[in-house]
Design goal:
Blueprint: H1 3-14, E1 23-25, E2 28-29, E3 40-46, E4 49-54, E5 59-63, E6 66-70, E7 75-79, E8 82-88, E9 99-107, E10 110-115, E11 133-135
Antiparallel strand pairs: 1-2, 1-11, 3-4, 4-5, 5-8, 6-7, 7-11, 8-9, 9-10
């Protein structure tokens, strides 16, 4: 059993009593701080990729997750190689044309970030000293 499978098993055992809240990836908020409330509803793994499913159809993929905590008061994955957050534009139909992503990839030079969100130009400020994923 690989790390992603072990983490998925631990999260499933903790559901539905896992902290809900706003997401951060290596210190970068998704949206404004504390502006959103995301609730984890399921998870699985494939090879070494952990897939987390949220209540509004969002999917968070985490490559090589390590050092995870999942409780009613805390959710954190301290280490990962890559993180991809996918969501449908809120308030619009859940169609492929409305599917967006933010992807964070750990590299020796820092965290590389890409997105297909086109309605603004975000300034991504990540820190490799922060957890790969956390819910606050």
């Amino acid at each position: 059993m690989n790390e992603a499978q072990q983490v998925a098993d631990q999260i499933r055992a903790a559901l539905p009593h896992v902290k809900s809240g706003t997401l951060r990836f290596w210190g970068q908020w998704f949206g404004r701080p504390y502006d959103n409330c995301h609730r984890l509803v399921n998870c699985d793994s494939e090879q070494n990729v952990l897939k987390l499913y949220f209540n509004q159809g969002e999917v968070l993929s985490v490559w090589s997750p390590a050092n995870m905590v999942a409780s009613p008061s805390n959710f954190r994955i301290s280490k990962a190689d890559r993180v991809r957050w996918e969501w449908f534009y809120y308030g619009k139909p859940k169609l492929v044309a409305n599917l967006y992503f933010e992807e964070f990839t750990k590299s020796p030079d820092g965290t590389l970030v890409s997105t297909n969100a086109h309605w603004h130009t975000p300034e991504f400020k990540t820190s490799q000293w922060e957890p790969a994923v956390e819910i606050l």
